[in-house]
Write a structure and sequence with these properties.
This protein is an alpha+beta fold and 162 residues long. It folds into 2 domains: 92 residues; 62 residues, no CATH class. It contains 1 helix and 7 strands, in the order αβββββββ. The strands form 2 sheets. The protein has a 4-stranded antiparallel β-sheet with strand order 4-5-6-7, with no helix packed on it. A hairpin with a 5-residue loop joins β1 and β2. It comes from Escherichia coli. Keywords: Signal. This is BfpU.
Length: 162
Amino acid sequence: MVNSGGVCNTMLKYFFILLFIFSNVSFANEATASLHTEVNKEEQKKNDILNEINIEKYKDELMEYQRLQRENLMLKLRLENRTLEKSLGVDSFMPEGVKLVAIMSSGAGSLRAKIYENGLKNVNEGDVLSEKYKVIKINKDNIKIQDLSSMEEDTVFLLSKG
């Protein structure tokens, strides 16, 4: 019986050793799972922040695209109106607040125009009025003005006295 007690003790030792090993393996798996859960939560937070940034970026791009579409539509309509006015022979050019007062000689065969635009001003060929109109040519009866805000190249109009 002494021998069977030693076998029992040995078996108990092996049992406890195996129990210890299995419990450590199980604990390690739980620790690993817990670590993965924390890492996944942090990655999810980072992804949420990145998605939020991307959404804001796309929202800004969409707003800019819509603004450009509206601006493009307005320019197309303005161009279409100009084309229709030309075909009808209607001159819609009326520079706001700009009136030709007089044309005079400035010496050496060149002409200078006196215009009223927020006060009297003397202008020569090449001068820009109101940052929108450029004086192309000064004749003895009128001046030719180009609309700089137009998309058309041939938007030259006459500004006459009166």
